[in-house]
From TrEMBL:
This is YhaN AAA domain-containing protein. The keyword Transmembrane helix does not apply. The lineage of its organism: Bacteria, Pseudomonadati, Pseudomonadota, Alphaproteobacteria, Hyphomicrobiales. Residues 1-202 form the YhaN AAA domain. The keyword Metal-binding does not apply. Keywords: Coiled coil. Residues 379-413, 503-530, 585-622, 719-746, 841-1000 form a coiled coil.
Length: 1156
């Protein structure tokens, strides 16, 4: 695909802007530079190109000038051997259209792009400063791994190392050999914990049934005790309520007596209790207020009659505004006139001095000396232009003379030099080709690296052989030694761990059984020491008693009876003692059973231990069979496996080191033969050119050939330079003669314009002196301001004098109208007196109005007081008539008795309800009957007895609750609930988690291994051509500081190495930051050429990637971009003009597009 034209119709800041890249020219690099200042729209252009190919996003940031529904991008694209006019609109569907606006299938562009997506295009076929930095970081993260760097350069995925490392870290967090902190290890420990918990709570059914029965009995006893306690507490509460009701009954009797003593008093309305205090207060207050109001009314009437009004106040008020304004202007004029007259005199003097400077001291009309602004501007331009005209004429004459002198000098040098080359062109071309093949080849560096690598591999092989000590022998003997797979070792390790765990467990159980057996025997010995507890001794005494009885029955004498009595008493004593110690006898029998069971278990554990030890010995023999005799010895299976694994790893490392050493030896010979051919070609080319190579070494041959080529090029360059300099000076002389003629014509034209312009002024006689004309123009420039200032001062003085006269006339007329005395000379004093008179009249008027308003308010208040006094008398009469008394004092005493009666009745009601609530009865009559039936003393005795009963039941309930809680704890400890089922559910959940983590671990491990293998395949497939291109590009970009790139094996991978100019080497991840950027750029350029070699190329866009490059490296990068542009279109965006100049110098056919 190629971009022929990009139309930014309505996108971002662009409107109807088009960038025409033109048609591709065969054999000429398709390199384009888009130049624009900051914010000119370079990044917008690249974004528009991507939006054209893949569609404008849902939320585009480029709609700030054109709305979404108007955005449009167009282009003419070349692919599949034809040109296609396409356009992209901002809409959900059918956004790709042709020149007629008909919708196109998106597959049209996707097919031309080879199915590459937007982000893939941005990473693979564009490059900017940020991606260069990320590429440098990728070199550090990959540690120079060749396959990863090649793939990163081709795809643009600089973060590949980080992604692979993150996947490996996640896999190690899930499972890692011999690690106890991984997720799988933690889950396994959780499984073991659940197993211990299940074993702890799981119990036999018979034991559980016994514990369940004990718990039920304790629960029943506790429930019975709590029921009895509840009944006793209910009876106690009933007695307490009766006792509490007795005091209330006595209080009720007392209240009824007090109520009867009050007698019968009328019941007034309830609001009278609150109204009476207010009536008592109002009776005194209203009398005092009425008296005060009458006195104030009389005083206001007297004050109003004493106020006198001015009858001329209205006349003065009509002229007050005019009076104030005129007085202010009069005073301002009186203060400012002396200063204005003085300033006017000064301005007249300044005008006179200015006219004197203009040589017109007695001119009758100074305004006639003013000049039009256009004429003054023309004169000033001509004055300023004069120096430039003279300078150009002088400079043109001087430059023409200098150019003629330089031409004569170069012609003389050309005749005397006689430059000619001593090597013909054919020999020179042959020598250049041979030298380029030798210097451009990486064979010397590769040979040095291979030889150095061979030495390192030989040392590595010797070190690995030494690590096999005490075993000795060569590699053939080592190959014949026995070996096994790591999977077999892992299988044996798991078997060894299981067997050793069994042995450890069996030995632990044996120790526990031996300790238990010893303890049982000791307790048996203690119990056997007491003869009364021995069953045999008790049976023997019983037999002796029975025999004595039979003897006594036979003889029936005193001796036999006495003997039988003694035996019977002894047997009874032993039986009584054994009966009292039945628990110890049961324990003794249990100990003998435990001893027998422990002996059986000990024998079984010893047999299992011998079986596990036999399996362990067999496994040890298998391991020893794979180890050399010199390092085989008697150890445990685990230790033997560690030794075997170490031996196998060192054996494999030694064999791998031997294979790498052989491969390196085989790779050196072809390199030496190929390098020899290149050296012989250089020697032959030197001999054909007549140059003898004294030293046949590669470095000396390169230096000799380079010197010869440099000398020949210098001669040719000097000859071409001299010829070009002569041609340039001849062309320069023609230009200087033309410049001189133009300067003379311009000088003559200036003189004509100068005379014509001065003829329109009153100082045309000054044409010969430019300084005089400049001084006159300066003075005339100040004349308008002087004239204007003088005229302004004259106007101001006249206005002030007119204001004073008008104010005096107005004051004299006003004084006569107000019947004042004859106007005085001090007109300001008279005006002030009128103002004071007017203010006094206004004050008297306001005072009279205020007094009158206050009088009206007092009258209204007096009427209100009379109404309030009438209401007060009506209420007072109502109360006195109700109680049939004369005054409010007697009413107050009767209301106090009524209030006391009401309080007694309220308290009686409360006490009745209190008694009813205490006895929990619906009516007071029932409660009174119940209280009459009880005897207080008997009730108190019953209450005390119940209190002691409750204390006893409470203590008993506590004890029963403790017994029930203990039984519940034993039952809970057994786990009779679903605890085992819940533990099993948790175990199954853990197993599922282990399965999920195991799957995730396998996916990550398989993915990283597949990625590593793919990188190795990519490295092997693209190493040759892509490495050659990258090596040449890196050598050019670094300015020859690095001769190229090579690789070095490192275990199962190859790492990238830079070969310096002097033959040294440096790892890619050890290079400086700037060099890593240049290395990544070289790899990206080589990757693009590799892509273009197998698929149709697409435009490659670089956005100012050379901001940090110096000029020599920028030149080399442009050379590389021009080589890229021969296989595909390359577009470079920049805001540095010096890069455009460098590109034009290095690639003359480059096309530069300007963004304004």
């Amino acid at each position: 695909m190629r971009l022929r034209r990009l139309d930014l119709s309505r996108y971002g800041k662009f409107t109807d802007h088009s960038i025409d890249f033109g048609a591709a020219r065969p054999g000429i690099p398709d390199l384009h530079i888009i130049y624009g200042l900051n914010e000119a729209g370079k990044s917008t252009t690249f974004s528009a190109f991507l939006d054209l190919l893949y569609g404008i996003g849902e939320r585009s940031p480029y709609n700030f000038l054109h709305p979404y529904n108007t955005m449009k991008i167009g282009a003419r694209l070349e692919f599949d051997g034809a040109e296609h006019e396409v356009a992209r609109l901002k809409q959900r569907s059918g956004s790709l259209v042709d020149e007629r606006g008909q919708a196109l299938n998106e597959a049209l562009l996707l097919g031309a792009l080879g199915g590459i997506g937007r982000e893939a295009y941005r990473t693979m076929f564009s490059l900017d400063d940020q991606s260069l930095k990320e590429g440098g970081n990728a070199i550090i993260q990959s540690k120079g791994e060749l396959g990863e760097l090649l793939f990163s350069a081709s795809s643009g995925l600089a973060g590949l190392s980080k992604s692979l490392a993150a996947a490996a870290d996640e896999a190690n967090q899930i499972y890692k050999k011999r690690s106890s902190s991984t997720k799988l290890a933690e889950l396994k420990r959780a499984l073991d914990t659940l197993k211990v918990e299940r074993n702890t709570i799981d119990t036999l059914a018979s034991t559980y049934a016994g514990l369940k029965t004990g718990h039920d009995q304790a629960d029943m006893a506790y429930r019975t005790a709590t029921r009895e306690l509840g009944e006793a507490q209910a009876r106690y509460q009933e007695l307490t309520r009766l006792l509490n009701a007795l005091p209330a009954q006595r209080e009720l009797t007392r209240l009824n007596g007090e109520l009867a003593a009050l007698g019968d008093v009328p019941r007034p309305p309830s609001e009278w209790f609150n109204l009476l205090p207010k009536l008592l207060q109002d009776e005194i207050r209203l009398s005092a207020i009425v008296e005060i109001a009458d006195r104030a009314t009389r005083q206001l009437v007297e004050e109003i009659e004493e106020i006198v009004l001015d009858d001329k106040a209205a006349t003065i008020a009509a002229h007050m505004d005019t009076l104030d304004q005129g007085r202010a202007r009069y005073l301002a004029a009186e203060a400012d006139l002396p200063k204005r007259r003085l300033a006017l005199a000064e301005q007249e003097g300044a005008l006179a001095r200015l006219l004197s400077d203009l040589e017109q001291p007695e001119h009758p009309d100074p305004a006639a000396l003013l000049l039009p602004a256009s004429l003054v501007g023309t004169l000033r331009d001509l004055i300023e232009e004069r120096s430039g005209v003279d300078a150009k004429r002088t400079a043109a004459e001087r430059e023409l003379m200098r150019s003629r002198e330089n031409l004569e000098r170069l012609r003389a040098e050309n005749k005397s030099a006689g430059i000619a080359s001593h090597i013909n062109h054919a020999h020179l071309s042959r020598l250049e080709a041979a030298h380029a093949q030798l210097t451009g080849s990486d064979l010397p560096a590769r040979l040095v690296m291979e030889e150095r690598n061979l030495a390192e591999l030989r040392r590595s092989y010797e070190n690995t052989i030494a690590q096999l000590a005490p075993w000795t022998g060569d590699v053939e003997v080592l190959k014949r030694t026995a070996s096994t797979e790591p999977r077999q070792i892992e299988l044996w390790r798991s078997q060894a761990v299981a067997i050793e765990r069994r042995i450890f467990d069996q030995e632990g159980r044996i120790r526990d059984l031996e300790v238990e057996l010893a303890q049982t025997k000791a307790r048996l010995a203690t119990c056997a020491s007491d003869a009364m507890l021995d069953d045999g001794e008790a049976a023997k005494l019983r037999a002796e008693r029975d025999a004595a009885w039979q003897t006594h029955l036979a003889s029936l004498d005193a001796a036999s009876a006495k003997f039988f009595e003694a035996r019977m008493l002894r047997d009874d004593a032993i039986s009584a003692s054994r009966l009292s110690r039945a628990k110890e006898l049961a324990e003794l029998r249990q100990l003998r059973q435990s001893e027998a069971a422990a002996n059986v278990a000990l024998e079984r554990q010893l047999a299992l231990l011998a079986e596990a030890q036999d399996e362990h010995d067999k496994l040890v023999q298998k391991i020893k069979a794979l180890l050399p005799e010199v390092i085989s010895h008697d150890v445990s299976a685990s230790e033997g496996l560690v030794t075997l694994e170490t031996w196998m790893a060192r054996r494999a490392a030694a064999l791998a080191a031997w294979h790498r050493m052989n491969e390196s030896q085989e790779a050196i010979e072809p390199l030496r033969a190929e390098l020899k051919q290149l050296v012989e070609a250089v020697v032959a080319s030197l001999a054909a050119a007549g140059i003898e190579a004294a030293d046949p070494s590669v470095a000396a041959l390169v230096q000799t050939a380079a010197g010869a080529l440099s000398e020949a090029r210098a001669e040719r360059t000097a000859r071409v330079t001299l010829e070009k300099a002569v041609a340039d000076i001849e062309r320069d002389i023609r230009e200087r003669e033309r410049d001189k003629h133009e300067a003379e014509l311009r000088s003559d034209a200036w003189h004509k314009d100068w005379i014509d312009t001065l003829s329109r002024t009153w100082f045309a006689d000054k044409a010969g002196s430019i300084p005089a004309v400049r001084a006159i123009l300066t003075a005339v420039g100040t004349l308008p301001s002087v004239l204007k200032e003088r005229q302004d001062l004259l106007s101001r003085v006249a206005a002030m004098e007119r204001d004073q006269v008008q104010f005096r006339e107005a004051m004299e007329s006003l004084l006569i109208e107000c019947k004042e005395q004859t106007p005085t000379k001090d007109i300001v004093t008279a005006a002030n007196a009128l103002t004071q008179r007017f203010e006094a009249a206004k004050l008297a008027d306001r005072l009279r109005d205020g007094k009158q308003a206050e009088l009206e308010k007092l009258k209204e208040k007096r009427l209100g007081l009379e109404e309030e006094l009438a209401v007060h008398k009506a209420r007072r009469n109502e109360m006195t008539r109700f109680f049939e008394v004369d005054g409010l004092a007697e009413v107050e005493a009767l209301l106090a008795q009524v209030r006391e009666r009401d309080q007694l009745e309220k308290r009686i009601t409360e006490v009745r309800h209190q008694i009813m609530d205490a006895l929990r009865m619906a009516s007071f009559d029932e409660a009174a009957t119940r209280l009459g039936e009880i005897e207080a003393d008997q009730l108190e005795r019953d209450s005390m007895e119940l209190e002691r009963r409750i204390e006893d039941l409470t203590e008993q309930s506590k004890q029963l609750y403790a017994e029930r809680s203990l039984a519940q704890q034993k039952l809970d400890a057994v786990g009779g609930d679903d605890a085992v089922a819940r533990i099993e559910a948790r175990r199954r959940t853990l197993l599922l988690e282990i399965e999920d983590h195991a799957r995730r671990h396998l996916i990550l491990r398989t993915g990283t291994l597949a990625a590593d293998q793919a990188l190795h395949l990519y490295r092997d497939r693209h190493r040759s051509a892509m490495m050659r291109r990258a090596s040449d590009a890196f050598r050019l970009i670094t300015g020859g500081n690095y001769a190229g790139l090579t690789t070095q094996p490192d275990r199962d991978r190859e790492i990238l190495i830079g070969v310096t100019r002097d033959g040294g080497s440096k790892l890619a991840d050890a290079m400086s930051t700037g060099t890593q950027f240049q290395l990544y750029l070289a790899l990206r350029l080589a990757g693009y050429e590799e892509f273009a070699a197998i698929r149709p190329p697409v435009p490659f866009v670089a956005d100012d990637i050379m901001e940090s490059f110096d000029n020599p490296r920028s030149e080399e990068v442009f050379r590389l971009l021009s080589e890229m542009a021969k296989v595909g279109q390359v577009i470079y965006l920049t805001h540095h003009w010096h890069l455009c100049e460098i590109a034009q110098r290095v690639v003359p056919d480059v096309t530069i597009h300007h963004l304004n």
